[in-house]
Model the fold of this input.
Amino acid sequence: MSKEQIKKPQAVSRRKFLAGAAAATAGAATLGFPMIAKAQGPISMRWQSTWPSKDIFHEYALDYAKKVNDMTGGDLKIEVLPAGSVVPAFGLLDAVSKGTLDGGHGVLVYHYGKQNALALWGSSPAYAMDANMLLSWHKYGGGKELLNKLYASIGANVVSFPYGPMPTQPLGWFKKPITKPDDFKGMKYRTVGISIDLFNGMGAAVNALPGSEIVPAIDRGLLDAAEFNNATSDRILGFPDVSKVCMLQSYHQNGEQFEIMFNKTKYDTLPPKMQSIIANAVEAASADMSWKAINRYSQDYIELQTKDKVRFYKTPDSVLQKQLEVFDQVNAKKSAENPMWKEISESQKTYAERAVRWDLDTIVGRRMAYNWYFGKKPATKKA
Done:
């Protein structure tokens, strides 16, 4: 037998052995040692707020996005655009539901045209609840389940997180102080949500406009008066340029809060851990927003008086009483027309009866202590 004949079978056998060893190794890796998948890149989301870029409300939206981005270590990156970048402010719900945007930051009252019961999250007297109480009702009193049911009824493909308790909003900015309910008769006035019905009931001609359009409308004479939200936002938007009279305290929006909204299809694809981070970031941002508001609003409240020469007045009790009377009429009408409205309103009223009573009986008033420390004290008579 030649040397070539002897070597050939050995070479074949060696190749078979090596091939079999490779297959065995691959099988072992498959069975005992899972392959390491290629790391997935960060998930990106494009959002829009319903606020101008200069407004503190847009800053709140950016604050929330940063918390999520930081808490996920960059695995989820939310970019927030200002109002109008993709859709108008009042078009946010449709855009998020359809997936044109992955999410957004706004208020539920801006969806009033889709289902008026959505405005019960803040655009009403809320049965004397403030915004923090209303958020308590939402989380622990059945509000969350009712909101999910409400969105499902209009086919909205969204996941909603109400958050961020707003302080009581001013009655608004006027040409002269409001002294009685009849002052609203014939007035061209801006507000949104249930407040449209409320001020219509008080005799005003109401025009619902997003924040960025209010001051230009007053400047052109399309509005006589308007409300927006707070000392900082109102100042940034330019209200002191068109009015020097602001009326404080009102029941039309004494319990409003913000809304963080995700496209449900995209949200449902997120890992459970990331969904948990999102939910916890909502509550962290809610607390931070309320603390920042106290700091910034109080500063701007002083500067509106000292630098912008704005005069503030307390809304007369007669006007506040009229608001409650008109809201009851609106509530009765809407409840008869809309079963969801009735269900939500009754749920809020039941919760408010005990929550507000507890608050009124328990929390000490601040006026006495404030006057003690900061009020003008009577001069001490000399002996």
Summary: Residues 43-166+256-295 form a domain with the D-Maltodextrin-Binding Protein; domain 2 fold (CATH 3.40.190.170). The longest strand covers residues 158-165. The radius of gyration is 29 Å.
